[in-house]
Amino acid sequence: MTTIDAFRETFLEDPGYLNYASIGPVSSTVRAEALAEYDSLSRMRFGAGERTTSHDERLASAVSAMTGHDAGNVIAVPSTSTGLLRVLFGLNGHILMSRDEFPSLPVAAVRAQSALDRLSITWLDVADGRVTPRALSQALSDDVTVVAVSLVDARTGYRADLTRIRETIGDRLLIVDAIQGAGVIDADYAAADVVATGGQKWLRAGWGTGFLSFSDRALERLDPVISGYTGTDEYEPWGHVPSPSRAAATAFTESNPDFLAEALLASAIEEVNAVGTDAIENAVLDRADEVIEMLDGADLPLVSSRTRDEQSGIVVVRPDEGRLGPLGAALHNTGLTTTSRLGTVRFSIHAGTSDSTFRMLRQALLVYRSSIAS
Q1: Is 171 exposed, middle or buried (0-12, 13-18, 19+ CB in 10 A)?
Q2: Alpha-carbon dihedral of residues 246, 247, 253, 259, nearest 10 degrees?
Q3: Is the pLDDT assigned to residue 1 strictly greater than 70?
Q4: Neighbouring C-beta atoms of residue 373, cutoff 10 Å
Q5: Which class is domain 4-25+276-373?
Q6: What's the predicted TM-score (pTM) here?
Q7: Which pLDDT tens digit goes with each residue over 280-319?
Q8: What is the CA radius of gyration of the chain?
Q9: What is the Cα 12 distance to its own chain's centre?
Q10: Torsion of CA 212, 217, 221, 225, to 10 degrees
Q11: Strand partners, 317
Q12: How much is the mean pLDDT over the chain?
């Protein structure tokens, strides 16, 4: 079992980085994997091809250990958005989701509805962007067959309770966009019927990495509309076009995967599994609490939750009128990387966020308080 201290040693970014919710700088583990794989690909010694293609099973095994879904129900995708499009185009029924989810979900739903006219949508309106079991319960109807939700809201850092959502929605399919939580939130992924994520944020595996993980019943209910030659029961079906495989995750593939991307993502998830997502989550939330304390000291109104089981590595403040500019200037001039959106400032903190970064944040907040006091 890898320790949390050893996990922290894999962080390579310079001090001042507080933006994992946008881009996760790749870990030393992933970088070493990439160098080894590209060296192998460039030399292509005898047998290298077989080793490279074995990363398909390696990734499936790692994802299965994380999500609780069968390894045969896992496929690689290049991004969360790509995965969600494959899934939502495969739906036939009525989906309930918040219109304020990150655009990947609502755009995929509307595209599927417009293209195939067999999916209807009920938009859930929540004032604070938090999709709670209670909000879902009040909006559910007998027509709803599918519920879609983000594991962590990108704008508020609110963490959805997948266990209680599953209890609330019953036998309906549950689709989860896990991009803002995979690798750092110890969620009940097995409660979901589809988990979609990319590896370029909290997993720190780089762009072009991601996965779809299905429950058995999701594969029984979804129609593989976006399906290529690898999505059939035949190997290279020459001369004719067979139907997609039924109740199989491979039906949602179009071609062979990017085996190198699979190796990078597998190495990242294997490391998370070895450390334990619960240990990583505790480390992330402890560091996030330190940031909240600093922000409170600067009298910055908190948007994200103070309740630990609703928290993630995302901490968000909404400065009072006229104070967003001074805060942004103080952060920028101190060399801190954050995200500013719709009047808020988002800080995203990982288990390996360094003490040096925290010292820079304290300095920036001192500068900010001085600027608004003058």
Answers
A1: exposed
A2: -130
A3: no
A4: 6
A5: alpha beta
A6: 0.94
A7: 999 999 999 999 999 999 999 999 999 999 999 999 999 9
A8: 21
A9: 21
A10: 20
A11: 302, 345
A12: 95
Q: Where are the domains of the chain?
A: 4-25+276-373, 28-275
Long-range contact list for 324-330, CB < 8 A, 24+ apart? Answer: 326/368, 326/371, 326/372, 327/300, 327/368, 329/371, 330/364, 330/365, 330/367, 330/368, 330/371
Main-chain phi, psi angles of 351, to 5 degrees: -60, -30
Q: For domain 28-275, which architecture applies?
A: 3-Layer(aba) Sandwich (3.40)
For 95, the 3-state DSSP assignment is strand
Tens-place pLDDT, residues 147-197: 999 999 999 999 999 999 999 999 999 999 999 999 999 999 999 999 999
Cα separation of 286 and 289, whole Å?
5
Cβ atoms of 233 and 58 within 8 Å: the answer is no
Alpha-carbon span 242 to 88, nearest angstrom = 22
User: How do strand 194-198 and strand 210-214 relate by DSSP bridges?
Assistant: antiparallel
